[in-house]
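Comment thread on ticket #2218

A.B. wrote:
> Attaching the input chain for the structure job we discussed in standup.
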Amino acid sequence: MYTYKNSYRDKPQASTASKKCCSSICISMMKCCKDFCNETSIHGFNHIAAPKRHWLERLLWLCACGLAIWMALNVSIGQLQRYNESPTVVTLEKDFRSWQFSMPAITCCYEDRMDRAKLPGVIKEYWNIEANDEKYDYYTRFVKAVANSDILNLQMFEQFQDMQMSVDMYQIAVDVMPEVNIKTVPSEAGDWKWWPVMTEAGVCYVTNSLALADVAIVKPNQSETASSPVMCKNSANNCYIVVDNYAVAKYYVHSPYDVMDATSVPSVAYLSLTRESELSTMESRCGRGVRELHPRRRGGPICTPAGMWCLSFFAQNITSNNGERCTCAPQCVDSVFKEINKKDQNWDKPPFSSRSSIKFVVQGPRTRYTREIVFHFQDLVVSFGGAAGLFLGASFISCIEILYFFLSRLFYTTFKKNEKNQKTTAVKSKLHTTAHETFRVEHLNAVLDSQKKYQYDVM
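C.D. wrote:
> Ran it. Output below, let me know if you need it in another format.
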């Protein structure tokens, strides 16, 4: 049974063992630091471990070396931050007569994005409800709300927030989307195919766009978008594209290298309208070596009707980024189109009364912004070397010496420990072998002695 005194006496023994361990570690570290200071070629470190120096002098050199290391790291981190954030400079080009510029991408979003002919089949497929069922009108309103919703109009989900079943609203919107019925007459030949996309404005169709990877409902392959975007030469003849449609729709004109922005002002085309819209263009390009920016894809659970209703309260904050200005770097290649003039005419008589027609006339850019690299990776390496040489007097060979010192110490410690273990094992084996041979000799002597005794008895 342990008494208070016994338990009290055990503590100093454990404390002594821990102190010995800490002392051994500190001594080893001090010896390693001393050897490093004596062997390194970096300026100042040899004065710290030089023999016959006063401790105040050693402390002075230690502070000086620490300050030099901090200054070198501070300058190097600043140069690395500059290389990652703003290694480019923007130049302005004016030689517009020889340019070819990108025609705009156009996203067409119908006002009514639900095909009535597809509605009964969709309700039958998802809920097994026939047209004569009393719940048919309820699901009709739900499908219509899903099909015609967008990021700024989600209030219609209020009546469905108690809906318990989880359905794929994305697929419902795709299943009831109307077929495209758009006629395109461009000034420049090219691939003006209309692709179905899922955007912030709901299910739409887009043409002359390269930004289809994340929004296209039917994913195109690389060969199908090889000719996009369509280019036009900057000349006296204006470039244009005429879009005829047989339903009320909104047209979003945007860069072919980006998706449409639901917060931008669209061109609303109603039946019997004929419009000529004049667009100005501004382009930005990148020089060789400028890195492209790719957005990160974010996953998450599929939203429910209750979630869509909740999202309606924060739609303005989402679209406006909480009133904060976006500090993201612009795309490497980009185009901005702005409407500067428009002319409208109404045709009330057939056949013009059953369709809308908008002609987008694009003026070529007179100026172009180009981003060029002014701070290359080689400049970053040189800045690192300059900081290390200025504050520490170090070079690339000094870094190799530091690596060599620590690797040699590691190998020496490892092999020395293994050699010590081997010697201990050999000594133990030798002792064990000697003891076994001695036992055998004694056993044989005992046998011989017993035989001699037997011979004497016979005589």
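A.B. wrote:
> Thanks. Noting for the ticket: Residues 22 and 119 are 78 Å apart (CA to CA).
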